[in-house]
Amino acid sequence: SSNINIYINSSGNDDVELNNNAKFQTLKGALDSIPLFLNGKTVNITLENNITENVTIKGFHSGIINIFLNGKTVFGWIKGTVCSANIRIYGGTKDNKEGQTAIIHPKVSLSFSDRNASMGFESCFSVGLYKLKVFGGDTKVAGLDGDKVCIDSQMGSQIYCRTISIVNTDIG
């Protein structure tokens, strides 16, 4: 199959070899294990519990990265940078993509285009966000007085949003 399914679980191991149904402890560990050139493949990543980490999706090309948050909470920000691969983040599961609402709630915002962002995408040409409740960071970045925003883009990023709730921000 051209697809690979991997899982994020607190009992997983970030040193596991990338293969179908592998369980990683962190989303960062899973993303670090994936080749940057996807060669037309789809990678499906499913959270099995809440996570507390900042996530950077960087440099993926020629394929699709689907992240299924499975109704869980990401206590951290999400940043995408320099990706020509399609990046999709769903609140639900692989079988019911929009069946649940997931939460993005950073403790400290991401410094992004002079603003305090919860999700930021730069030079990512196809991003889709589905069924998410996105909170502004609890705290702004030290020394950055810019507006608090939930979803931000720059440098040609295209973001499609469907069923997104925005909470505790100056600007959506």
Fold and architecture overview:
This protein has 172 residues and is mainly beta. Helices cover 4% and strands 45% of the residues. It contains one helix and 14 strands, in the order ββαββββββββββββ. Strands 1, 2, 3, 5, 6, 8, 9, 12 and 14 form a nine-stranded parallel sheet that branches. Strands 4, 7, 10, 11 and 13 form a five-stranded mixed sheet that branches. It is globular, with a radius of gyration of 15 Å. The relative contact order is 0.14.
What key attributes describe this structure?
45% strand; globular; 14 strands; mainly beta; 172 residues; 9-stranded parallel beta sheet; 5-stranded mixed beta sheet
How do the helices and strands follow one another from N- to C-terminus?
Answer: EEHEEEEEEEEEEEE
Number of helices: 1
Considering DSSP H and I runs of 4 or more, what fraction of the residues is helical? under 10%
Largest sheet: 9 strands, parallel
Report the structural category: mainly beta
User: How much beta, percentage-wise?
Assistant: 35-45%
Termini, distance in Å? 39 Å
Radius of gyration: 15 Å
Unreliably modeled segments: none
Morphology call:
globular
User: How many DSSP E strands?
Assistant: 14
Compute the average pLDDT: 92
